[in-house]
Each structure stands twice: as C-alpha cells, then as structure tokens.
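User: what does the whole thing look like in 3D?
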Amino acid sequence: MKKIETNSENLKDDISAFYDYKIWHYITVNGVDLGDKMEIQYLFKKYGNKEEVVCYFLTMDYEKEIPSIVSIIPSAYLGEGEVVDMFGVKIKEIPKGLLLEEDSCQAPLRKAQ
Amino acid sequence: MSWFLALFAPVFGTLVSGIDRVVRARMQRRLGPPLMQPFYDMFKLLDKRPMMVHKLHIVLGVMHFMALWASIALFMFGGHLLYIIFTHLLSVIFLILAGYSVRSPYSHLGANRELLALFAYEPILILMAVGFYLTCGSFEVSVITSNSPAIVSMPLMFIALLILLPLKLKKSPFDAPEAHQELCGGVEIEYSGFFYEVIYVSKMTEIIFVYALVFLFAGQNILLGIILVTGSFFLVNAVDNATGRIRIDHLVKKVYATAFVLALLALGWISYV
Amino acid sequence: MKKTINIPYGSQHIALLEPVRFQFETQNEKIVGVKADIGYVHRGIEKACTSTFEYKQIPSVVARVCGLCAITHSLTYVMAVEQIIDVNVSEKAKYLRMLMVELDRIHSHMLCLSHTAENAGYEALFMQIMADREIIMDIQEAISGNRVQFDFVCIGGVNRDITDEIVKFIIKSLNELQPKIEDIFDMFENNWSLSLKYKGIGAITKENASIYNALGPLARAAGLETDVRAESDYYPYEKIGYKMILEQTGDIYGRNRVRLREILSSIDMIKNILCDIPEGNIIEKVKGKPNGESVARLEAPRGEIFYYLKGVKQAMLDRVRTKTPTFSGIPAMVEIFKGQEYGDVPAILASFDPCMSCTAK
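Assistant: Here's the predicted 3D structure for the full assembly of 747 residues, as structure tokens:
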C-alpha cells in the first residue's frame, strides 16, 4: 500500500488532481483511530493493473470538520457516511445515520470512550 | 342441477385451485401442498383477526363477490351471455374501486393495472358473445349449450379465449395485475381476516367463470366440453411454468395484437365463410 | 393534486431476501426518484473484531458476516493478516483456497440467477436452478464438511485436505452440472417472456459504471474491465486458464450472461485446479503478533471485497475494516433505478445480487 499524506485544506485539490474515473477505481474511505486523533484514508486502485493500492491519508482532531469528496467521487457518500457513524467525526454535508439509529450507541469504534 | 352448480361454484373453484396447485408443483419437480390446501387456507383466514380500513372498502369487496356470483348463477341458469359478461365487468369494477378507495400505493398501482387489464380483455369477451350470437342465433346460454359445438365454426375465437385465460386466472405471463413480487397482490393487499376471505372466495369463483366460458364452446357435447376444459387447464399451467411475468404495458399490447385480432378474424370468418 | 406516488420497497417485502429499504417516487409506474436505506442489519462485526476476538479467531468471526460469502470474507482477512505476520503459505493451500472461491462463485451466481428468474415471475426456472445448485452444495460439503458458512480457511493455510475420492466426486458432479448450466443458458437466451423482461431493462453505460464505481458482474456487463483476479498475482489465475468475461449491453440480460459465462469458465478452472494441485503441506505454523498495516482484495462473486487491517504487536488487532461489493455497488444501483418502470424493479434488484448482511456488517 502506497501512502501519500495530505491535509484537510488540500484534500479536495489533491484528490481532484489525482482522480480520473477512467483510470482509478475508488475503493473506499477508511477511518483509523490513532488514540489521540483520527486518520482518514482514501483508497484507490488502478483498473487492469497489478500495481499496489494507493492511499491518500490525512490526520485530524476529533472535533474538526473536514470537507467531503462527494463532488469529485459521487459514490463516496457511503464510505464517508460510515466513517461519520463509526467514529463520530464531522464531514461537511454528510449526515449521520447511515448504519446507526439515533438511539443506538454513537461512535462505537472511537477509542476514547 | 342449476341451483346446485350456482350455489356450490365457489367450492368447485376452490377444488380446482387445489388441483391446480398440485399440478403446477409437479411440473416444477416439487411435491406440492395437499389437495385440500385451499380449503384449509379458507378456514385459517376465518380465525384471523379482521382489520378494516374503512367500511366502503369492505362493502365494495363484498359487492365484488356478489356480482361475480350473480354472473355465475346467470350462467348456470342459462341466462343472456351479454348480461353475464357485463355483470362480471361490474364485479371487476367494484374491485377496482375498492383498490382506489384506500391509500396504499400497492393497492393503487394494482387497481391501475387491473383497469388496464380490463381494457385488454373486455372487448374480446364482448366480441366472443357476438360470435356466439352469429353462430347460434341467440345470446342465451341455454340456446348455445343446446346447439352444435361452436368451436367448429369459430376456432380462432377459441384461441383468443385461450390467450385470455392466464390473464383472468392471474397466471404467468399475464399476472401483472397482482404480481406478488412487485405489488404484493395489488388490490387485495388491504383486506385481512374474514374480509380477505371474501376476496379469496371470489378468486376461486372466478376460476369457475373462466372455465365455464371455455365449456360454452362445446355446445351440447358435454364430453367435448370436458376435454376442452381439461386441455386448457393443463395448457394454462404449462404456459405458467414456461414463462415469466411481462409488464402491464406489454400485456395490453400483446393481448390486442393477438387475441383481439384473432377475435375480429373469427367474426369475419363467420360472416363471410 | 399530488403528481407522484411514493412506493416503499422494503424493509420487509416479498421480493427481498434481506432487509433493505428503497423509497421509490413514481409517476404512474415510472420511477423519478430513489432513496436507499441500508443500515437494517448492522451487527458491529468490526467492533467485535477489535474488542472481543484475537486475530487468530477472526477468520471464523468474519465468516459469519454472511452465509453465502463466508469463504471470501475469511479468505480476504487471512490474506491481509498473512502480510503482517511471518508466515509462508504453501502452493497447495493456495490452490485449495482458489478451488473453494470458484465453487463459491458458481453457487452464488446460481442463487442470483434463480432469484432474477423468480422476481421476473418465472417460478419454474427458479425451482430448476435451485435444484441444480444442490450439486455444488454437495461438493462444498464433501470438501469442507459444511454446505454453507464453512470455516475452511485458516491463517497459514486451510483446515482440511482433499482426497482422491473427493477429486473424482467433484469431477463427476461438474460434468453432470455443465449440461444443466447450458440448458439454463439456453432458457435465459431464448425465452420470450424473459427477453421482454431483461433486454434493455436496467441498463448502465460503461461511463456511468466507472463514475459510480460499479463492481463485479454489474460492471463487467457494461464492458468495464474490472476484476481483481486479473489485478493481482497473489493467486496463479493465469495458470489455470482465467479469462475476463465482458459483455457490452449493461442490462439485466448482460448481467445474466456474464454470470452464466462465469459459471462455465469457473467449471473449467476448477477442473484445471484439480488436475495440477501441487504436493505440500496444507497448513503452516503461525508465529508472532501482527504488526503494521495491510490491505487485501479478492474477487468475490459480487465483486471486489476489501480488507484493511492494522496491528500493534498485540493479539488483538487495532482496526479491521471490511468493504463489501454491495456496499460499493449501491450508488450505481440507485442510478440505474431512475427512469425505469416500477414493474421491472424486482428483477433489476435481483440482478444486482445485493447482499445486505455484508453491506451493513
């Protein structure tokens, strides 16, 4: 897995410069709790090619809000929605409630709880 | 005899439905339910808690059954064929109104489709009645059944009726009006318990109505009538097991393109040949 | 007066196998809007994998995500974890794993085809395909001991070896199955009512398929060349005669054709696998604790399945992320539904082969 760092300000620019739907297959958005902050990963793979998976990642504080990449990759709302539900992070324009209901436990994969 | 047939038409219909289920299951390499399963279903429905959407809905359902039963009774007493077909039309319209009277989208779509199907088959039934009038000289069922077999003079009309059979019996390929995977039964969905029983029994009665029309083609020859009914019964089941469900717009197109044309040709045949 | 009808499709509906809710907005029967709600069967498998179970137990845990996909889930997890611990899997174990994945593909595709037929109102074909599917279930039982939900794969190899009798039995059964599949193929090609129901219905273009990241048979039916079997060399798929199967139409008919041709090609591949299984151990000893990050991808019957793992030198993993094919397929599905007739919805939905237990985890 090839990892490339980015940050919340440059995320949309980086992804839109990198992503071409004819070449890259968007896999998913992933979240990893590092203990004191969050790492959000955006995973891609080239079509018809045996190269390794490419991962853009950014680290963020729990309370900060990051932009959504739905305007670049329309199908990303599901992956982002899952990260929002599972870790309780904030992503612009992505609502809670994809997998969890309001009365179930919130942010189950967050370590601090 | 007429009294007996008219009164017990729903029971016979249920029995035919039981045979139908076994035959269809055997065609699909299954064992199938016991022969009396539709009767068990009937008794089971009586035990269920009845739920009412509103009174008009129930009243329309009951009127659907009564009108259908009346049309069967008219048939058994040898009445006027046009009256029979229009009483049957009335019963279907009650059912469609019942479908529109509730707010369930499934019921609405089912009523839409039932209405479209009605437009598809009703002209052909009327043309068939005209055909009987032209061959036998009367609309009276008692006259038609004492004449020589009408199938000889209008075989094309019989084929047209065969095309309508799956539509009336709600079988593939023409079962779009009730389509359980799409509409969960369409107009019948909001009935429950004892009130569904009424709709259930009228479905069974419908079977008798349809096969009675088939029987009519044999005229006075009862043996030929039995052969026609049995043959069409197996044909309908074989077709049901060899086709999927086609969409309602295709259904209307196909029925007009085949059955309607055949019925017109049959009338032309009688007039000019 | 309101111009559109709102039709709820699910969460419980006759044509659905698992709970999912689609809210269709229709004008008469034409669909103008769709909303999907997928979170009905969320069970917290990811949480359980990082809080209750040790990494050696997890193959059995993720196998319980979904009964049909058991082998692909546990296998992808195992592939990911083998990258971050010190273990070399023998060639024989790799062949046995491939064998199971291809068998799983056949039976899953047959299940999907049967449901596509049933939801198009063709009950007899449903019964026929389900009866023929028993052959594959019997093979799976002979190999792994279970019909579904088998814990065949473990870290370091596989749990059971196959004997010569089993090999003979498999080849005999597959020879029996092949003409039956060709019969079914013929039915899907030539039946009049099915052609009305399938051809040109629920189509997606290649362009849209790649914009919405369609996967598996859904994408390959539209001509998009995506198949993990061709995109990784972890397994020797070229050696056993793998060919990518593509169709150009993108409709239900194309998806059925992709599935049927993949079944036939899987049958050939399984025969090749059985011919040249190498000698060797089936299981290697596993030492150490997982450390670091790893990802693994595998072509499940429904498309790409993806696992991300992170270990911190403890018996318990730090993070397990599962991405299932249906989860990625939902945006493309929602896109396809727009503009279709409501009467076609059950058949279209069944042709996606959605697996909701996988999606919600």
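In plain terms: The CA atoms of residues 31 and 339 of chain C lie 5 Å apart. The first strand of chain C starts at residue 5 and ends at 9.
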